[in-house]
Amino acid sequence: MISKNNLSLSRGNQSRRKFIYNAATAMGAGMVLSLPLISHAAKLTEKPQSYTVKQIIDLFMKQVPGAPFPNTVDTLKSGSMDTVVTGIVTTMFATIDVIRKTIDLGANFIIVHEPTFYNHLDATEWIKDDDVLQYKIDLLNKHDIAIWRNHDTIHQLKPDGVTKGVLEQLEWQQYAGKDIPNILTFPPTSLKDLITHAKDKLHIEKVRFIGDPNQSCTKVLFIPGAAGGTRQIQSIGKVKPDVLFCGEIAEWETAEYVRDARAKGDNISLVVLGHIASEEPGSAFMFQWLRDNVPSVKATHIYCENSLTFM
C-alpha cells in the first residue's frame, strides 16, 4: 500500500513522474491516481479558476513549437470544445472501462495518447453499424464527455514528452544522447540485464526478443510506440545499435530484418516491450503537466494496462 505521506510529490528521492507511474502500477489493474491540485488554504480564500476544453488544449499548444499542426490526428473525438471542465483524466486509451471510471470520478474530459475508435484516424464510417462502437459513442454522449487525442503534439515537445517520460521511468536519462535522446550509450551491459531492468521499471510481465541474452550491449536505440517497420529498419541501418528497444512491430517486417541481419553477422538484437508499456509514462507526463499548468482542475491518471495477457 502507499501511505498518505507518499502522496506528496515534492518529497522523497523519486522524481514526481516516477512516483506517479509507480503508484499507478503498484496497486494493480485500473488503478487511478488523483491528487488535490490546490491547497486547502487556497480553497478557503479564492474560487478555483475554471477552464473550457478548448482553453486547456490551447494552453498546451502554446508550449509546443509549431503547434497546432495541419493534418493532425490530435482532434476532439467526442464532446464540445466549449464544455466547462469538471475534471480531467489522462490515459493511453479511452477504453469503456476508463470512460466508466471517468464518469464515477465526476470528470468530463479525457486526454488520450492513442485512438478511441480502433484506427489511427479515428474514422468510424467503416464500422458505423457495429454495436461495440455505438455503445461507446452512446456512453460518451450520455455523459457529455469530451475526448482529445494528444499524440502528434506531445511528440513535438522539446524534448519529446513521451520519450522524456519513459526514459525517466526507466532511469535511463543519464545514458540518453543530448541531441537525440532516443540513442543511448551504456557501459557494457548484457542484453539480459537490460531486458530485466526494463521489465522491472515498466512493470512488464514478459517481452519478446531476438538475440543472445549474454550479448554485451553499449549502444541502444529506443523507439517507443508503433513507429512502423520502415522507420525501425531505416533507423537500425543508420544508427547501427547493438539492440533496438521498441513498442510494437509487424512481425513480418522488423523481426525478419533483424533475423537476416544476425544471419549476415551483424551484432543486432531486438526487444519488443509492447505499445502501452513503452508509452504509458507519456500519459503520466501529461498528468504532471496538468498539475503544473492547470492546478485548479482536478486531474486523475488512469493506467489502462495492456489489453493482452500472457499464458
Describe the structure.
- With 311 residues, the protein is of the alpha/beta class.
- The protein has 2 domains: 4-158 and 279-302, NIF3 (NGG1p interacting factor 3)-like (Udp-n-acetylmuramoylalanyl-d-glutamate--2,6- Diaminopimelate Ligase, Chain: A, domain 1, 3-Layer(aba) Sandwich), CATH 3.40.1390; 169-275, NIF3 (NGG1p interacting factor 3)-like (Udp-n-acetylmuramoylalanyl-d-glutamate--2,6- Diaminopimelate Ligase, Chain: A, domain 1).
- It has 11 helices and 11 strands.
- The chain has a 6-stranded mixed sheet, with helices on both faces.
- Helix 1 (16-26) packs across helix 11.
- The chain is globular.
- The two termini are 27 Å apart.
CATH class of the largest domain: Alpha Beta
Share in β-strands = 15-25%
Mean pLDDT: 88
Number of domains: 2
The helicity comes to: 25-40%
Biggest beta-sheet profile = 6 strands, mixed
Ranges where pLDDT stays below 50 over 5 or more residues in a row are: 1-17, 23-29, 36-45
**CATH fold field value of the largest domain:** Udp-n-acetylmuramoylalanyl-d-glutamate--2,6- Diaminopimelate Ligase, Chain: A, domain 1
What's the total helix number? 11
Work out the number of β strands. 11
Strand order of the largest sheet: 1-11-3-4-5-2
Distance between the termini: 27 Å
Shape: globular
CATH architecture of the largest domain: 3-Layer(aba) Sandwich
Task: Please state the CA-atom Rg, rounded to the nearest Å.
Answer: 20 Å
CATH superfamily of the largest domain: NIF3 (NGG1p interacting factor 3)-like
State the secondary-structure class.
alpha/beta
- The topology string of helices and strands comes to HEHHEEHEHEHHEHEEHEHEHE
